[in-house]
Amino acid sequence: MTDPLLRLSGLTKAYPGVVANKDVSFDIMGGEIHALLGENGAGKSTLVKTIYGLVKPDSGQMSLHGIPFQPAEPRAARAAGVAMVFQHFSLFDAMTVAENIALGMEKPPPLRDIAARVRNVSEQYGLPLDPDRTVGGLSAGERQRVEIIRCLLQDPKLLIMDEPTSVLTPQEVAILFETLRKLRAEGTAILYISHKLEEIRALCDNATVLRLGEVVGTCDPRNTSARDMAELMVGSVLHVPQKAARPVGEIIVRLDALNAPAPHQFGTALRDISLEVRKGEVLGIGGVAGNGQDELVAALSGEMRVGAAMIQYQGTPIGKLGPNARRKLGLLAAPEERMGHAAAPDMTLTENAVMTATTRQHLARKGFVHWGRARSFAEAVIRAFDVRTPGPQNTARSLSGGNLQKFVIGREIMQDPDVLVVNQPTWGVDASAAAAIRQALLDLAVNGAAVICISQDLDELMEISDRFAALNEGRLSAPRPAAGLTVEQIGLMLGGAHDMEVAHVDA
Amino acid sequence: MDFSAINPILLLASLMVAATPILLAAVGELVVERAGVLNLGVEGMMITGAVCGFIVAVGTNSPWLGFIGAAVGGALLSLLFGFLTQFLLSNQVATGLALTLFGLGLSALMGQGYIGIKAPSFPDWNIPLLGDIPVIGPIVFQHDPMVYVGLLIVAGTWAFLKYARAGLILRAVGENHEAAHALGYHVVRVRMLAIMFGGACAGLGGAYLSLVRVPQWTEGMTAGAGWIALAIVVFASWRPWRLLLGAYLFGGVTVLQLNLQAAGFAIPVEYLSMSPYLATIAVLVIMRTGRAPGSLGQSFHASR
C-alpha cells in the first residue's frame, strides 16, 4: 500500500450554533476517484472548502504527500496542486473564456498562450470550448467545461468536484465521466461530491459518508447498492415513493398547438405543442436543458402570455390569463431557479409564502396582508416538508439550496392545486428529501390533481410519471406510457429522433 | 451678434482645457465602478481636492505640489467612504451622497482664509516642434502639463484594464465578487485601492479647476462637475476611450456656449448655460449603454 495523497485527520470546524465538521479523518490515494456522500447540510461543502483553503479548521491536520498541509488561502492550495470545480460556478459572465481561465491560475501566461493551451487541453480531453467566447452566452455544460479546463491547466494532483453533474445533460455527464477516468488513469486523485448515487456507483473507487458533520462510514461504491448508501447517509431506512394505483379522470388541461417565440436572446421558441393532461395523472417531461423547459413552464404558469385558445383549462381558454388568475382556477407552478425566481432571496419565508399563496389561501383582504395567517401558512409548509430553518422569519437566502427547494415546492403543494407544474423539483436536494418531495407529488395525483413534472433526472421521471414525453428544441414528442419504456427509447425521444429515424442518430 | 469673434482654433484649444477636470474625475470613477463600487461622492472629493490643492499650491508656491496635495486630499476623503462601505458595509448610494455634502462643507471650512487669493501660475507648455505645427499645434500641443497628465491617465487606465493581470483581477472583483472571493482574490483590498485611486483622480480634477481653469478658490466652485463625471462614466459604458469622447463632448459644448454668449447670440443666456448638460444627457440616452459591472453597488462580506 502506498502513502496517501491527502490525509485528513481530526478536522473539526464549528460555526455559531452548528458543528459543520466533527473529527473528520480519511485518506485519498493518488489516482482514485473518492466520493464524499452526505445529505444537504452534512458538512461536505465545509470540508472541501477547508481542503481548498477557504475555511480554516478549528482543529485537526491535513497532510499532502506526507507533508503538513495548511493552506491559508486558495492560492496556497492551488500552488500545492489542489484544484476545485465549484457547485455554483465561480465564473465571470462578462468576460471571455480565456480571461476566466487566467483568473483561476496562479501564474498565467499571456492570454494568447492561454487560448492555445485551452484548445490543446480541450482536444486532449474531448471538451470542446472556444476560448474567445463570452461566458455569459454559454450553456451550463460549457460553463462547467470552463471550470474544469481552468483546473486542468494547472496540472492538479487533487481535483475537487462539488456536485458537478447537477446541471448537466446525460450526454454531458458521459463526456465528463470520460474526462475524469482519463485523469484518474494519469494519476490524478478526484474528490467527488454528488447526490446521484448511481453516478457514484459507476464512477468512484471509494466513498466516505458524512452525517451531521461526522464520518459515519466508508464503502466501496462499486459493490454497494444505491439504497444502502442512501441509508448510510440518512441513518435510517430510506422511504421509497409508492406509486398507488389510481383512476385517471377527465382532461383538465389541454395544450392546443402551443406556439410562442423565444422570450429572450438565449431562449427557445415553443413549437406546436399539443398535449392533454388528465386529473390524477403525473406527466413527466424530460429533455436536455435549454430545449424549452423554462419557456413551457412560463407559458403554463401565465408568466408568458400566449394565444387564448392555446391553453385550455377544463375547456376554458386561459392562454391570456396572468399567473394569479390561473392560481385562482387551480393551476399552480414552481419554476426551476429557486433563488430569485421561485423565491426572493432577501425576503422572509413568510413574505415569500404571501407572494404565491395570497390568492388561494386568502392571505390578503381589501389589499391588506393578513400576516398572522401568512405566518401560519409558512409554518405549515416548513413543518410538512421538513424545511430546516429556525422559523419563517428567516430570509430565503439563509436556507441551503435543498432546504429552499423543499420550501418553494411545498408552498405550491400545500395550496391544494388542481394542476401543478414543477420544473426540476428535486434539483440539489438530498436523497431522503427528494423522496419526500416525489411522494408529495404522487399524493397530489392520488387526490385527483394533475401533475406536470419537468425534469432532467430521468430516474426521477420514471419513478413518478404515468406518461412520459420529451422536449427537444421547443417541440414535444407524443407522450407514451412510462411503464416499460427502455433507456434506449427514452434516449431517442430526448434526441428528437422518433422511431423511424433511428438510423440517422449518429449520421 | 458677431460670429467672427469666435476663433475656431482657440475654441478647439480651450475644449481640451474645459474637459480636463471632468475627464480626470470620470476616469477615477470608472476604475472604482469597474471594481464594483458606486461612489456618488465624486463632487465632494473634487471640491476637497480643489481646496487642498489650492492651499498647498499657495503655501509652497508650486502648482505641482498643489496637484499632489489635491490627490492626497481626495484619496483621504475617499478612504472615509471606503471604510464605511467596505468594512462597515454601509449603503454605497447613501454614503456617497453624504460624502458629497460632507466634502462641500469641509472644503468651505478649509478654504475660508483663501478667498480672493490668486493661485501661483501654471504656465502652458509650448511643446517644441509639435507645438509649432500650424492649426494642430495650438489646438493640441500648447496646453498646461495637466492636460497631458489627464490623457496619460486615461491611456494608462485603458492599458491597465485590458492588459494587466491586476486589471483583470479588478474587473473580476467588479463583475462577480463572490466568484472572485472563491478564487482567493481579496475583494475588499482591491476595492479599497480602486476607491483611493478614484479619490485621487477626483482631487486632481478639482485642483485643475482651482489652480488652472479659474484659477482661484470659491466655495462650491465645482458646480456639478462631479455629477457630470459620474454620468459620463455610464455614457461611456465603463470604457476609457469612450470616456474621453464624452468628456470632450461636454467640454466642447461648454466652450462653444461660452463663446456664443460672448458673441451676443440671440438666445437667453440660461438656455446656453444649460446646453452642455442637455447635450450630454441627450447623447447619454441615445447611445446604447453597455452592461454595468455585475456586482456594481453591492456590499461584499465573505460570509454571505
UniProtKB/TrEMBL annotation, chain A:
GO terms for molecular function: ATP binding; ATP hydrolysis activity. It is found in: Cell membrane. Keywords: ATP-binding, Cell membrane, Membrane, Nucleotide-binding, Repeat, Sugar transport, Translocase, Transport. It is a peripheral membrane protein. Residues 6-237, 253-498 form the ABC transporter domain. One of its GO terms (cellular component) is plasma membrane. CDD domains: ABC_Carb_Monos_I (cd03216), ABC_Carb_Monos_II (cd03215). It comes from the Bacteria. The keyword Transport applies. The keyword Plastid does not apply. This is Nucleoside ABC transporter ATP-binding protein. It comes from Yoonia sediminilitoris.
Automatic annotation (TrEMBL), chain B:
The chain crosses the membrane at residues 6-25, 37-58, 64-84, 96-115, 135-161, 192-211, 217-236, 243-260. It is a multi-pass membrane protein. Keywords: Cell membrane, Membrane, Transmembrane, Transmembrane helix. The keyword Disulfide bond does not apply. InterPro entries: ABC_BtuC-like (IPR037294), ABC_transp_permease (IPR001851). One of its GO terms (molecular function) is transmembrane transporter activity. The keyword Acyltransferase does not apply. It is found in: Cell membrane. PANTHER family: ABC TRANSPORTER PERMEASE PROTEIN, SUGAR ABC TRANSPORTER INTEGRAL MEMBRANE PROTEIN-RELATED. This is Nucleoside ABC transporter membrane protein. It comes from Yoonia sediminilitoris.
